[in-house]
Automatic annotation (TrEMBL):
<dbReference type="InterPro" id="IPR001214">
    <property type="entry name" value="SET_dom"/>
</dbReference>
<keyword id="KW-0489">Methyltransferase</keyword>
<dbReference type="GO" id="GO:0005634">
    <property type="term" value="C:nucleus"/>
</dbReference>
<dbReference type="Pfam" id="PF00856">
    <property type="entry name" value="SET"/>
</dbReference>
<dbReference type="InterPro" id="IPR050869">
    <property type="entry name" value="H3K4_H4K5_MeTrfase"/>
</dbReference>
<protein>
    <recommendedName>
        <fullName>[histone H3]-lysine(4) N-trimethyltransferase</fullName>
        <ecNumber>2.1.1.354</ecNumber>
    </recommendedName>
</protein>
<keyword id="KW-0862">Zinc</keyword>
<keyword id="KW-0949">S-adenosyl-L-methionine</keyword>
<feature type="domain" description="SET">
    <location>
        <begin position="3"/>
        <end position="238"/>
    </location>
</feature>
<dbReference type="GO" id="GO:0140999">
    <property type="term" value="F:histone H3K4 trimethyltransferase activity"/>
</dbReference>
<keyword id="KW-0479">Metal-binding</keyword>
<dbReference type="Pfam" id="PF01753">
    <property type="entry name" value="zf-MYND"/>
</dbReference>
<dbReference type="InterPro" id="IPR011990">
    <property type="entry name" value="TPR-like_helical_dom_sf"/>
</dbReference>
<keyword id="KW-0863">Zinc-finger</keyword>
<feature type="domain" description="MYND-type">
    <location>
        <begin position="48"/>
        <end position="86"/>
    </location>
</feature>
<keyword id="KW-0808">Transferase</keyword>
<dbReference type="InterPro" id="IPR002893">
    <property type="entry name" value="Znf_MYND"/>
</dbReference>
Amino acid sequence: MASKFERFASAGKGNGLRATHEIHAGELLYTAEPLACCVSNTCAKDFCHSCFSRRKTLLRCSQCKVARYCDVTCQKQAWSDHKRECKCLRSLHPRIPTDSVRLAARIIFRLLSPSQTSPGLCSLEEHESHLCDMGEERREGLSQLSSMLQLYIQQEVPNITQELPTVDPLSLLAKLTCNCFTISDGELREIGVGLYPSMSLLNHDCRPSCVMLFEGETLHLRAVRDMQPAEELTISYIGTLAPTRDRRTQLEEQYHFTCQCQRCTTADMDPMMLCGEEKAWAPLREAIPRLENWQTQAYWSELLYECGSLLDPLDGDVPAVPDCNVYRLRVIDLALDACINLAEWDKALAYGTITLEPYRQYYPDPHPAHAIQLMRVAKLQHFLVHLGDAQHTLRLAYDIMKVTHGNQHPLTSDLIRKLEECRAELDRA
C-alpha cells in the first residue's frame, strides 16, 4: 500500500501525520499489526486470545487456565507470544494482572526478541511517558502497577534493568496509558488493548478526519472526508458524544493536553448537548456511571427499570428533557441495550428510533457509531417486519459504513446481506 501521508512536526502538538497526496473519503490509508496486544480481562472468556473472534465455546490453555482459543490452530499461532506469558500467569494463579500489566509484559517479551519487531514511522522509545505531568495520586497508582509488573514477569525476566537497560517499567506503563489503543469489534465493543507505535503519531480532533477500526488485532485507518496535501490526519482519542467540558477534562486527565480543536474552541454543539433545564438532566448525568455498571454486570431488568424511571419521572414538577440532550440520549441507549437483552423488541425499537435524529446531528461526518446505531435499529425493524423502514435504515447505514468500514469488512458484508433479504421479502410481499 503506497503511503499517502508522512510524519511531520505539528505546531503545538509535537509530531503528527499529514497528507502528501490528495485523499478521498473512504480510502484505506494504513493497515498495522500491533507491537503487542492482549484480550481484556473482562472479555477473556468470550474471545479467542489469538484471532480475537467471539466464540460460544473456546478451548482453555491447560497450563495457565486463562488464555482461550478457537481451536488448536489458533493456539499454535499464539504460542510464540503466549509461552512466556503462560509461565507468568501460572506463577500468579489465581490472580490475574490488569490489562495494562499484561500488555506491558507482552511488550517486554517482544523487545527481548528483536527479530519479532519491525521498524515503522515511530518507535516505542520515542513515545512520551508524561510522568512529569501526572499528579501524585496517578504516579502512585502507576508505581503500584510497576511493582506488579516486575513480580509478574519475574519467572521470565528476573532482572529487567540488566536484560533491557533502556526499559523502565514505570515509564513503560505511563507510555501505555497515553499511547495504547482499545481494540474493538466492528460494533465498537471493547475486546482488548494493543500498542501500534506508528499510529500513536496521530493527533486528536473532536471532529477527526480519519477513523480506526479493527479486524481481529489488525488496525485499519480510513479517511472519513476528503483531504488535500499538507492537511493533518487526525483521529478522536475519546468518544465525542459529550459536552466540551467533559471532553476536555478527559483529554487533560488521560492525555495531558487541552484540546484546541474547532469543536472545543467554539463549543458549537454544547447548546444542543446540554439542552433542557439542568435541574432536569442533572439526575440523568449522575446516574449514568451506576447504570453503566449494571450494563457491565448484565443486570438487565434492574437497568431497564431504572432507565424507565429516569426517562419518565413520576414527579410532575420535573420538566421534560429533550431527546437530543446527551445525558438523556445515553440513558435511552442503555435502555435500548437492556430491552434487546430482555427480548422486549417493540420497546427496543421505540427507544432506538428516538436516537436516530440526535445521532444524525451529532455525527455530521461518516462515523462508525452512527452506522452501528442505524444498523441496530434496522435489525429491529426487520425482525418486527417493518420491511420498508428496515430497507431505508439499512441504506442509510450502508452509506456511512462503506466509508468507515469499507466494503470488505465483515460487518459491511452482514449489512449487505440484510439489505438483500429486505429487498427479497419486499418483492414477495
